[in-house]
């Protein structure tokens, strides 16, 4: 392997360490945000319940209609039901996912609509449960609860804004490639307090903007940030003490985006894509909508410790048992391969694994002896490089069985992205390199899809989805699907 080829593993390993350091630095911030969400849920629940109880106590003094006396516990039961429905509807509407707005119109609209919807949903339940709720109390609650929730929501946002002014739960943000919508984007990030973004600078490739200032929209224009000429470098991000780099994709080329992502990784800064149309086309990528713009965080590299330990134990136990149970099958396959064509039964090839490290991957040989080791894999069963027994092995995925030895050695896992050949990994974009953040596997989402007939790196959305959502039960589900997939004959 050439010297240039050995650079990639070291570089990817350094990037992985930088991302992990950034994760450690922001762990307390994420915990603080979780606490705020929990407090907000409790506050919403209590506010809606208080609205129903307030109607119960106000109704006798308002002299509206005929007063119906019923126990307080029944009013409390209705209040609890309304509150539960309200919290569920708020969660489904994205109220706790970090979305926001420049003028908090969206929050006020929710505070009006959700209590009314919750009361209407609770009405038939109260009739079924024979809970006494007079029509007057119902109407009073419809009038009282929305204003209470509006005041509570605005007070909660004011508290968060006050904490942000004291630099609690705040990411120092640099926006790169902001384009002509600079004022709007700056205003959105400054006023949408839930995501916790505090803009400190704008980086632009236009030399004419160097030294200018971008001010926010509004009457007072309290915030403005400086504009500095690019390109993005690790030293530049560190000089601003940048925690998060927001990249505006429509205004930048692919080369500029890759360079900016690499610089952010080296500086240990989180990467978030703004108006990420390329990523929005991948429906499995999670985004945050903030007042009409989309913020799409780049995948995080560090796994949960307990999941990693459990997964490694499952890999060791599973690979050991399968190697013992399948030993007779291994012998028969090796025998058929030797009878079918000349050459060894096993095929050994270097692949790129976790953090870009190279390892030797084992497969049953499915192609003729003398076929070049490192070239694009066959995509059609009729490829002349494939042997007769090789066609059956590839169709049934039995050629992958020797990789159980790689799982036992720790180079691979039972479930994960497929390991790529190094000459392809060297051409990866920043997005594609994210698949090297986890241990490669024998089976995975891409392997189970119809897109497995196309190159791995051309369908990176499967691996990105797995990296973001991976867990012990997802791994089990993928293994179950793999068994049925193999029984159906694969592709």
What does this entry look like structurally?
It is a single chain. With 491 residues, the chain is α/β, with parallel strands linked by helices. An eight-stranded mixed sheet has the order 3-4-2-1-5-6-8-7. Strand 7 and strand 8 (293-297) form a beta hairpin. The protein starts with 6 loop residues before the first helix and ends with a helix. Helix 1 (7-62) runs antiparallel to helix 2 (72-92) and helix 9 packs across helix 12. The protein contains 17 helices and twelve strands. The protein is flat. It has three domains: 24-165, no CATH class; 170-297, 3-Layer(aba) Sandwich (Rossmann fold), CATH 3.40.50; 305-487, no CATH class.
Q: Keywords for this structure?
A:
8-stranded mixed sheet, alpha/beta, two-stranded antiparallel sheet, flat, Rossmann fold, 3 domains, 491 residues
Question: What shape does the CA trace take?
Answer: flat
- Domain count: the total is 3
Strand order of the largest sheet: 3-4-2-1-5-6-8-7
Residue share in helix: 40-55%
The rounded Rg comes to 29 Å
Low-confidence stretches: 1-7, 276-284
Annotate the secondary structure layout.
Blueprint: H1 7-62, H2 72-92, H3 105-128, H4 135-165, E1 171-176, H5 182-191, E2 197-204, E3 213-215, E4 224-229, H6 234-239, E5 244-248, H7 254-267, E6 270-274, H8 277-280, E7 288-290, E8 293-297, H9 305-325, H10 327-340, E9 346-352, E10 358-364, H11 388-396, H12 403-409, E11 413-415, H13 422-425, H14 430-433, E12 441-443, H15 445-448, H16 460-469, H17 472-487
Parallel strand pairs: 1-2, 1-5, 2-4, 5-6, 11-12
Antiparallel strand pairs: 3-4, 6-8, 7-8, 9-10
